[in-house]
Design goal:
The structure holds 2 protein chains of 2 kinds.
Chain A lengths: L2 H22 L7 H10 L5 H36 L11 H18 L12 H25 L4 H24 L2 H11 L8 H19 L2 H9 L1 H6 L4 H23 L5 H13 L4 H23 L10 H20 L5
Helix pairs in contact in A: 1-3, 1-13, 2-3, 3-8, 3-11, 3-12, 3-13, 4-5, 4-6, 4-7, 5-6, 5-11, 8-11, 12-13, 12-14, 13-14
Chain B lengths: L1 H8 L2 E2 L22 E6 L2 E6 L10 E7 L6 E2 L5 E5 L4 E3 L4 H8 L5 E4 L8 H8 L4 E2 L8 H7 L3 E4 L10 H5 L4 E3 L8 H5 L2 H7 L3 H23 L6 E4 L1 E3 L2 E5 L4 H8 L3 E2 L9 E5 H8 L4 E3 L7 H7 L7 H4 L3 E3 L11 H5 L4 H12 L13 E2 L3
Parallel strand pairs in B: 1-5, 4-6, 7-8, 7-10, 8-9, 10-11, 12-15, 12-17, 17-18
Antiparallel strand pairs in B: 2-3, 3-4, 13-14, 14-16, 18-19
Classes of the chains: A mainly alpha, B alpha/beta.
Chain lengths: ~350, ~375
């Protein structure tokens, strides 16, 4: 028997256990027997429990998988594309664009006279729309600039500039907003995985699928790019085309995730490094599935912790990802004494 | 020089604050409010703000003397000496406006930060006539404008520690008084802060009468409900993202629900502010609650469902027994509840009793809480 099927089987088994672990933990303690029966037969000894598991915890687990893997892949693409270990899914300024959209909606609606904080402006759909719009505008701006410039590194700087620009507008908006509006915006920026319905999870999954499918075309050219842009050119890689495709794939993955779950910190930057340190390769054929799996796995664990099982309270997901992720990355780097990038 | 020294030595009154010479008039006693107290010294008052913000380690003492009285020196420690009745006042919270209105002194209001939020009718008329200047944001008052207005006092509030926005105002020599009505955890404690304004305008008796009226109504209505058999379960708040925000068990909202003879499901939690709980824990606890009051900013079932499908699982949602104060707005769209409710706990209590026990109050129409729309 070849090695690959075994590995793939193990990966899926581990992921399944992680989902089960994630779904069985939460504020309300539900017996494991009821968790299994809810998952597999749609019934348990209490209707509330079934609802919590099927309509709250399960969509949250799926969202965790999508967010973890999607942001991990985005981070990987950006790190290879810019040949910069500090790059992550948000270097193109997508989270800033999304943040600006949401800030305009939450804090600017009263300021700009769009009807004094009428509830419709705070609706989930409106937030998703505002966030997507912000990301799309940034993406278009990046695409236009990338058609004009020769050096990919310039995109990095432009992304940073976008972040500064939008940051300034957000600052002005928060200065004039009420404490309620400000709080809503801050909470949005802390990210959350648990407020998506099944329909929204499905929509998010479609974008995630498209983003991942685009990555399949990027495996070989990205491998070539690792050695250098001119080497890749000599191998016949169309750099301009590669640039477009990478930017679009990243924008689709990161933009949709940010729209639905808010800007999730850290995972996108850290997961590729973690996986490189664990499997010690840079080949994208291996790295893409590895990052996918690693991101999903780590996100599920982080979400389980953020639920503070057994207590009535929860922690913001961003706090958990960074608080746990940073020491792990530091430890791994210290252990292997190099980045392996 | 010697003249000045001489005049300083004159009139120095030695007072022992703990002495028995303080026979308080009936209308100066503070019953429910924990944040302030009043002492009468001869013909003037010492207004002590005991808790200017939650867990404050500093108190503020304001010596209030009648205008016609001659100036004097005293051994009493104080932060400001203020001549009453004051003629020109700046307040900074909409909750201060109804107090000025009922005391009949709104015409002395000269400035307010962000006047757009004010809903009280008479105040709006004055704003529209340009009698009340807009001073910008509360956290960064327009200092120049404020100094130009030349108010005798600025009444402000601080969420934690001093309000940075007013430090410059202090430097300019305008007395800044802290009003901590929002810190009070008893509904009547909040309403009692009308006495604070009563002192400033030398209308202590009027303020006391108004407060007594509110207290009387509150206690009478509470007594009406307390004898009933039924005690429905009540839930409050709503989800924002995946967190459910609701008033904590020691908050004034929780107290009013209790006084309305209902069982607030989070009455036993600690804290006077709000709690943020996970969705599943709230669903588990409150799914079968009979009534749901103040679901954040929502004003209709459709809006709620559009935002979050989970609301459907709640009995109060299915039975359409959700009531909100968000639809009652002033001329400019400010929610009236935020402005008036702390001043009129009796009306809030009546509203809630009218919801929980519909037959108790005859022909009563709710002021704040209305059923939300379809």
């Amino acid at each position: 028997m070849r090695k690959e099927p075994k590995i793939i089987l193990t990966i899926f088994l581990v992921l399944f256990v992680a989902v089960l672990f994630n779904v069985s933990l939460g504020s309300v303690s539900i017996p494991f027997k009821d968790i299994l029966s809810s998952l597999f037969s749609g019934k348990s000894s209490q209707a509330t429990w079934t609802y919590i598991i099927l309509e709250y915890r399960l969509p949250k687990a799926i969202t965790s998988i999508i967010v973890g893997s999607g942001l991990g892949i985005s981070g990987l693409l950006m790190q290879t594309f810019f040949r910069n270990p500090l790059a992550g899914p948000y270097v193109l300024g997508l989270s800033s664009g999304a943040g600006l959209g949401v800030a305009l909606l939450l804090m600017g609606s009263s300021l700009l006279g769009l009807g004094l904080s009428s509830a419709i402006w705070f609706s989930k759909t409106a937030i998703i729309a505002a966030s997507s719009l912000g990301s799309i505008l940034v993406m278009l701006a990046i695409l236009i600039t990338s058609s004009k410039i020769k050096d990919s590194m310039a995109l990095l700087i432009i992304g940073l500039m976008f972040a500064s620009l939008t940051g300034a507008v957000v600052n002005v908006l928060s200065y004039f907003s009420t404490s309620d509006e400000l709080q809503q915006f801050v909470f949005w920026s802390l990210g959350s995985l648990g407020d998506l319905s099944w329909v929204e999870v499905c929509i998010l999954a479609v974008f995630w699928g498209i983003g991942l499918a685009l990555c399949l075309f990027l495996i070989k050219p990205l491998d070539a790019l690792l050695i250098g842009e001119s080497y890749a050119k000599s191998l016949g890689v169309n750099i301009k085309f590669l640039r477009y495709l990478t930017v679009i794939a990243t924008c689709i993955l990161t933009g949709s995730i940010t729209a639905f779950a808010g800007p999730i910190a850290f995972v996108g930057l850290a997961i590729p490094h973690l996986m490189r340190l664990v499997i010690k390769t840079n080949q994208h054929l291996v790295m893409i599935p590895a990052v996918c799996f690693g991101g999903a796995f780590i996100m599920l664990i982080c979400d389980s912790i953020s639920q503070l099982p057994g207590s009535d309270y929860t922690l913001p997901i961003n706090a958990v990802t960074s608080f746990l992720g940073a020491p792990v990355v530091i430890w791994l780097i210290m252990k292997s004494r190099q980045l392996n990038f | 020089m010697s003249l000045i020294l001489l005049s300083c030595r004159q009139n120095t009154k030695k007072v022992d604050l703990n002495g028995s010479e303080f026979q308080l008039d009936e209308d100066l006693k503070v019953e429910y409010a924990k944040g302030f107290e009043v002492k009468k010294i001869d013909s003037h008052y010492l207004l002590i703000i005991k808790e200017p913000w939650p867990d404050a380690d500093k108190t503020y003492r304001y010596l209030l003397k009648h205008k016609e009285e001659e100036d004097f020196n005293t051994n009493i420690e104080y932060d400001y000496k203020i001549n009453i009745p004051i003629e020109r006042i700046v307040v900074t919270s909409t909750t201060h406006i109804p107090s000025l209105d009922t005391l009949g002194v709104l015409n002395h209001l000269v400035g307010f930060p962000n006047t757009a939020y004010i809903s009280t009718k008479r105040a709006r008329q004055l704003i529209n006539k340009g009698k009340v200047r807009d001073l910008g944001q509360n956290q960064s008052l327009n200092t120049e404008l404020l100094i130009e207005l030349n108010p005798e006092v600025v009444v402000t509030f601080a969420v934690k520690g001093q309000n940075k926005g007013v430090e410059r105002v202090k430097e300019a020599g305008v007395p800044v008084l802290y009003n901590a009505d929002w810190v009070e955890s008893h509904p009547l404690g909040k309403a009692e802060w009308i006495k604070f304004f009563g002192l400033l305008f030398d209308k202590t008796e009027t303020a006391d009468d108004i407060f007594k009226g509110i207290k009387h109504e509150y206690e009478k209505t509470k007594a009406l409900a307390s004898s009933l058999n039924k005690k429905p379960d009540v839930i409050s708040g709503a989800l924002w993202k995946d967190q459910w925000y609701l008033p904590a068990g020691e908050s004034w909202q929780a107290q009013i629900i209790k006084d309305a003879h209902a069982n607030y499901l989070y009455a036993n939690t600690e804290g006077t502010g709000s709690l943020s709980l996970s969705f599943e824990s709230v669903l588990n606890t409150a799914q079968n609650a009979e009534f749901w009051i103040a679901p954040a900013q929502y004003t209709s079932y459709g809006e709620m469902l559009e935002q979050q499908q989970h609301y459907r699982k709640f009995k109060a949602f299915q039975n359409k027994t959700i009531f909100s104060f968000s639809s009652v707005k002033g001329e400019n769209g400010g929610v009236l509840y935020y402005e008036l409710a702390p001043n009129r706990p009796d009306l809030v209590l009546k509203d809630l009793i009218n919801i929980f026990h519909p037959k108790v109050l005859n022909h009563y129409e709710n002021h704040f809480f209305k059923p939300i729309k379809q």
